[in-house]
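Hey team,

Filing this mostly as a record. A colleague (T.K.) asked me to run one chain through the structure pipeline before their review meeting, and I want the input and output archived in the tracker in case anyone asks later how it was produced. No errors, nothing strange. Just documentation.

Input sequence:
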Amino acid sequence: MMKWFAGALAAGLLASGAAHAACTATTYPYPLANGSTADAGQVTADLDCAPIHGLANWSGNVGIGTTTPLAPLQVNGVANPPTTTSSTQNGMMYVGGQGGNGLFVGVLSGSPYSSWLQSEFQNPSAGFWYPLSLNPLGGNVGIGTTSPANILDVEGSTTGNGIKVGNAGGNYGTIFDDGNFHIKNSANAFWIDTGDNSSSVNINSTSAGFVLLATGGGKVGVGQASPSYLLHVGSSL
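Output structure:
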């Protein structure tokens, strides 16, 4: 038994078997409004045939939670952020596997009105969050562009838009290009750190070219966090 919510159901559902005989389908030409109870507003098409392995062809749009769908499939629900404490996620759509892992899709009801994706176990309170892969077989990913030229292509619409990387403590850094390439943190400082006392940092390791520092008139400190001169070398060196 199959339940159809709205739209027109065309004949041509194929049943299994050598002859692939078509099932008899009923056409419902008018959109159906959601009712106040769980099954109100639904029409059941009882297809008396062998198991179906064909396609159902629809004309018009299909709406779940709305009587005026704007796209071939529109799903409306309660807008909420993802939860970590409930046994039921707040998403409006879910695509999952038989093992309980899947992808939830939702939106926020307040500013900045973000849409969200969360790959996880279907019970959020269990605390199992899974990776989310984009183009795992290849291809480029674009943010702010419909024609990405690299594996990850980020393009802003205004000067200064770029990539922001931060942590839960409120510390963050930004990378952007406004004709010059910028890397800085929230305090307008820039750090390069290997995180390992036995490692080194190489800047322009080729045999040609120059390294330019403080070309805007600032000061350079070596072993000195607050240089007082154009070049201030700390006494410990």
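Quick notes for T.K.: Residues 165 and 173 are 5 Å apart (CA to CA). The longest strand covers residues 101-107.
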